[in-house]
Structure formats: C-alpha cells, structure tokens
Amino acid sequence: MYLIRRFSGLIAAACALTFVMASGCGSEENVKLGGEGGEGGTGGSGSGGSGAGNPTGGNTDPAAVVFPDIAALHATGVARTCALNDGVCHSARQYPELGAVKDLVALVNAPCQVAANDPAHVPDECERPGDLLVLGDTENEILRVLVDPKAPFPPVSVEVRLAGPAGPLDGAGARIRRLGDAGVETLSVPLDGVTFAPGGDASTVIVQLGGAPAGLRSFLDVRSSDLDRVRVGDANGNGVAHASATPWALVTPGDPSRSYLYKRLISDAHGPKMPLLQRTWSALATRAVWCWIRGLPEDATAATVTASEPIDYEDCPSDPDAPDPNATGTWSSVRTLMGSRCATAGCHTEAAKAGSLDLSPSSLVYQQSVIGVPSVQQMGALRVVPGQPQASYLLCKVDPECESRAPMTALMPITGNPLTEAEIKSISEWILNGAPLE
C-alpha cells in the first residue's frame, strides 16, 4: 500500500494561534477554528462516481470518479474550458453552442462543420447531400455556391455549380428543395424575382438576385455561417461531394470514430486539436466523451438522451488513439483533480478564494498562488515546494497520514469524499517531478 511521505519539520505547536471563524465551503460543518481553514481543500462532491468498473481491473474507472454522467462532464470540463464566458469560443459565438448541458446533449446526430468559417476546412466526412435546384423538369444537386468576397451582404449575384447540366434557364417555377434522410422533402424555397444566366459550363448557373427578396438573397449567401443557409454537397470544393455514405455527426451514437467532436479531441487531422486551452480538460474528460458515445444506442437522438444517465464505463475499453487516462503525476491530472474537487463554487475559486487560496486550473494561477508561495495557515510552510512532496503543505492538507497540519484545522476536502490514495499519490508525484505547469 502506498503511503505518502510524511510532511515534516514544521512545529505548529510553537506558533501562536489566532482563533477565527473560517468560511469553509458549503455547509454548516465547514465552520472551523483556525487560520487558513481550507488550503488544498475542495467544496464539491465531484468524485463519488458511478461505481462503474474498469475492464482492465475491477477498480473504479478513473474517469467515472470525475465524470459520472454528461451533466458532470459539462459542468467540470466543457463549461469551464469551452464555454466559460459569453461571446467566447462555444458560448454564443461558435458552432456548436456548448453553453448549457442541453447543448452538449443536442450534439447527438447534429451535423458537423456546417458553420465553418472557411468551407475549405469542412472534411469530406462531414459533407451532406446538397439541396436540389429545380429548373423546369430538371433538378440537380447544388455542389457549391460561390460569392464574391467583396459583394454586399446579402449579395445580388451568386454562382451555383451543379452535379449535372442545369436545364432550361427561364426561371418559371424555379425553386430549391431539400430532402431529409428518408428522402422526404423537408424544405422548398421558391426563387421568386430571380433570373438566370449561363455560367462557364453546362453545370454552372449565374443566379441574379437583384429583384429577389432579402430573405432569399441571405439564404444563398454562404459567407454567413449559420444553419439557415443553402446546403451544398461539396462544401470544401475539392471535387469530392459528401464522400461518406453516411455523413459524420458531431456525436454519432455508438461510434466515436464517426463523431467529429471526439475526433477533434484526439487529433489535428481536421483542424487544431481541441480544446486550444486545456483548463479543466484532460485525458479523463476525453475518455468520458469516448465512453459516452460508445454507450449510446445507435437509434439515440437528442430527445432520448438524458444528461443525468450514468456513462457506461463498465463495458468501455480504452481507445488506443487517445491520451492515457490513467496517467498520474502530471500537470494535466492534477489540474483536472483540483478543478473538479477544489476550485468549486464557494471554495478555492478566483472569486471565493477560501483561505486566501485560488486553485483554479490555470498554470498562471498556480505560478502566482501555489508554487513556492507561503501558506497563510502554517507558519514557515510553502504550499508547494517543487521536488519536495514532504515539504509541500498543499499535499499535507489532503493526506490523512500527514501529522503536520496546523492545529484545529481540517483535512481537505471538507465536503464530499476524501481524496483517494491514488489521487494523493498523483499530487505527490507531480510535486516530486518538479510541479510542472505544462
């Protein structure tokens, strides 16, 4: 059994104690006598987990402890990494919206890369069949819509490239129609006030929109990246229209390999690997996404998925292409642990700073507030001494074996389950490795 090395050398009894009421983190039991009242502590019950089994052992899956369900994954990982401020990243700014847990659930079977800032970045696997341009008795799939970048918004003219010869260009009865997955028409847009002219070849049409209503002109303006635009079959313009027989979704139930969200978490093959800034994201969060998607029934929809339903870790193997979720002693593992158990509402956040300690999962915060910074609770101690777990008071505060906590102060976390032996070992190894912040 792993025993954390005892914190040593500091004689708290020699210190004169001033008795104050500490604010604690979340319940009446948190009112303690002592100084700092919460260094290294937590306020949530972020662990506790679902009790899911680890297929490689019989122990609790490490991801299940932090992310038992989608609600926990959103609260700890997504909201605090991808959607932490309005108007930033995936909070009221970029597709997909991730500001609320319902938005995460809504990714199930949602189309991927439909709102890419640059259509060239849309992978073939995400391309869906384009809308159909109906001219007379001819209809063709719309592969691309080209708009002069300098044209006004909305434009007065666009170039439409089709999958076949356009047919008559008189415009009578012309419309754009869309078929759903079952082949049933789901959209019909009459091209009122539009005139047509031949393009550079038989499959290209110039659509003059000067007499068309503004709504129709906006519908054909592919420079705008919302969902109420014409759908094109070859968005990236590489000549291969929707190469995948069944387009990927952001989350494809039962199949992470065809889930664009997951692929962006483990690879840069389709753009920069996400998230750009890790914050509370880690290999455990990536594993949670993997197991969630694998466990979804193939016929699942956003309407049938419940955020509070436990993620199925019991039958979830490891993904060999994903980062190792069992890695310990790293900044990633410590950051995730502290972010989910300590930097919670009312505790060690930037706003609350219980015990004058901020443990927000940011390398800058740790550099300024933790590494080599004196404890305000234990005279003469430093919160973290790189390379010296036994001299780091942060570790002492969470280790029940440590006998050098300041008198009349509590073991942390003060609410929820105590840290496990493995979690304590991970913090110790991180400190022993020099407390790296990257």
What is this structure, in a nutshell?
The protein contains 10 helices and 9 strands. With 438 residues, the protein is of the alpha+beta class. The strands form 2 sheets. The protein has a 7-stranded antiparallel sheet with strand order 7-6-3-4-5-9-8, with no helix packed on it.
Topology at a glance:
Elements: E1 20-21, E2 33-34, H1 62-66, H2 70-78, H3 101-105, E3 132-135, E4 138-146, E5 157-162, E6 175-179, E7 185-190, E8 195-198, E9 204-208, H4 214-219, H5 260-266, H6 283-295, H7 331-341, H8 363-369, H9 393-398, H10 421-432
Antiparallel strand pairs: 1-2, 3-4, 3-6, 4-5, 5-9, 6-7, 8-9
Can you put this structure into words, describing what you see?
The chain is 18% helix and 10% strand. It has helices at 62-66, 70-78, 101-105, 214-219, 260-266, 283-295, 331-341, 363-369, 393-398, 421-432, and strands at 20-21, 33-34, 132-135, 138-146, 157-162, 175-179, 185-190, 195-198, 204-208. By secondary structure, it is of the alpha+beta class. It folds into three domains: 12-43 and 358-432, no CATH class; 47-112 and 248-341, no CATH class; 124-219. The chain is built from ten helices and nine strands. The chain has a seven-stranded antiparallel sheet with strand order 7-6-3-4-5-9-8, with no helix packed on it. Strands 1-2 form a two-stranded antiparallel sheet. Helix 7 crosses helix 10.
